[in-house]
Amino acid sequence: MKHTPSLDAHWMPFTANRQFKQNPYLISRAEGAYLYDQHGRKLFDSLSGLWCCGLGHTRTEITQAVAEQMGRLDYSPGFQVGHELSFELANRLIEKTPIGLNKVFFTCSGSEAADTALKMARAYWRMVGQPTKTRFIGRGKGYHGVNFGGLSVGGIGSNRKLYGNLLDADHLNHTWLAENAFSRGLPTYGAHLADELEEIVALNDASNIAAVIVEPFAGSGGVIVPPQGYLKRLREICTKHNILLIFDEVITGFYRTGQCFGSQTFEVMPDMINVAKGLTNAAIPQGAVIAHEKIYNAFMEANLPLHAIEFPHGYTYSAHPVACAAGIAAMQLYDSEQIEAKVNDLIPYFENALHQLKGLPHLEDLRNCGLAGAIQLAARNGDGTIRPREVFEYCWQQGLYVRYGGNNISLAPPFIAEKSEIDQMFNILADAIRQLK
Ligand SMILES: Cc1ncc(COP(=O)(O)O)c(C=O)c1O
C-alpha cells in the first residue's frame, strides 16, 4: 500500500488544520460524479468538487487536450506575444455570453478575476474622464475570493476580520429573509432590498462610485437566492446612476442556473461577468473577466500612442496555453453533451427532492436555485457550525461528499448526475439529519 506522507508541512487553505491532521479525509482519485478516498471508499461528489467540475471528473476529452498541449506548448509568455489557443477560447466563450459582453481578459482564478474586474472598472472611469468614480459596492454574504479587492467587496465577516484595513466599500444587505425560508426557487418577496442601492448612492454620490459587484446567487455564502425582480432592480439603479454592474459568475457561470450564465437565466445584462471554475471544469486553474465592448473600446480609443499598454495588468499565467486547451475542451463538452438540456431536466427533480427534507429536525431553511441548493441547520449550544460538520462526517461514511460551511450544507451536484444518484444523495442526507442531536 502507498505510504501516506507526513501532513505537517502543508498549511491547508480554508481548513481546520489541527482537526484535519488528527483525522484526515484524503481523496486519492476521482472519476465522473465520484471521488474515491484513500481507503478506496466511493463518494458521490455533491458539490462538483468546489462547484467547479459540473462535467464530472477526469474527463478523457479534457485530459487528452491537456496532455497534448503540455507536449506541444507547455508555456508561452503572454505579454506582448501570444498564442492561438487563447484567441480560440475567447471566441468560443463569447459565443455563449450575452450580446456585447465580448472581450475576455484571462486570469488564473476567481479571486484574480474579482480584483481584475475592480481595477478594470476604476481604470475605465478614468479612460472616459470620470476619475472620481472609484468606490465599490458589494453585498453581505457575498464571496469574491480572497485577494484584497475581492475581500473588500465580499460580505463574509469571518473571511475579513483578521486582515485590517481593506478598500473602501459599501455593502448592500444580503437577500436572505427569514420569511422566505423554505421557498422553492426564487422567493416572490424581497425585490425591494435592491432599493438600498439608492441610499448608498445618496450617501456617497454616484460621481464617486465605480461599480456594484454581486453574485447572481451567493454561492459560498450558502446559496442565498435573489428574490424575483431583485437583480433587474439593481440593474435599473446602476443604469440610472451610471454605475458599472459586475456579475461574479464564478459559481453561477457555465450552466449552474440552467442557462450558460446567470445573467441569461435572470435576464439581466451586467457590464462584466467574472468566471473561473467551470471555465476549464477545474482541470487546470483559470478565470476570466468578460467585459462589455464599451469598456474595452474606452481603453482602445483613449488618446495613447500605439505602443502604449492600455491596461497595465495581467498575470504570468494569464491565458496559460494548457489552461486554454482545457477550456476549449470543456466548452466542446458543454455543447456536445447538451449540458444545458441535462441541467434543465435535473433542476425540477433536484428542487423536489431537496424540499422533501422539510419536516426533518433542526432545519432552518431549504433553498434552491438552478442545480444548487442549501440546507440550513439550527445552531447547537450557540454554534451553527457543529451540525453541518456532523452531517459531513456521517455522509462521508455513507459514501457521500458534502460541503459544509457556516450553518449550511451546500449542494451543487455534477450536471452528469443521474436522478437515482440525486435520490441517493438526499436519502443519505435525510439519515444524516435525523441522527443529529
Ligand atoms: C463567486 C466567487 N467568486 C470568486 C471566487 C474565488 O475563486 P478562486 O477560489 O478561484 O480564487 C469564488 C470561489 O468560490 C466564488 O465562488
From TrEMBL:
The alphabetized UniProt keywords are:
Aminotransferase, Pyridoxal phosphate, Pyruvate, Transferase
GO biological process, any: biotin biosynthetic process
- Under the GO molecular function aspect, what terms does this record hold? adenosylmethionine-8-amino-7-oxononanoate transaminase activity; pyridoxal phosphate binding
- Cofactor dependency: pyridoxal 5'-phosphate
**Pfam families, per this entry?**
Aminotran_3
Organism's domain of life?
Bacteria
Q: Which InterPro entries match?
A: Aminotrans_3 (IPR005814), Aminotrans_3_PPA_site (IPR049704), PyrdxlP-dep_Trfase (IPR015424), PyrdxlP-dep_Trfase_major (IPR015421), PyrdxlP-dep_Trfase_small (IPR015422)
Query: What family name appears in the similarity comment?
Result: Belongs to the class-III pyridoxal-phosphate-dependent aminotransferase family.
Q: What is this protein called?
A: Beta-alanine--pyruvate transaminase
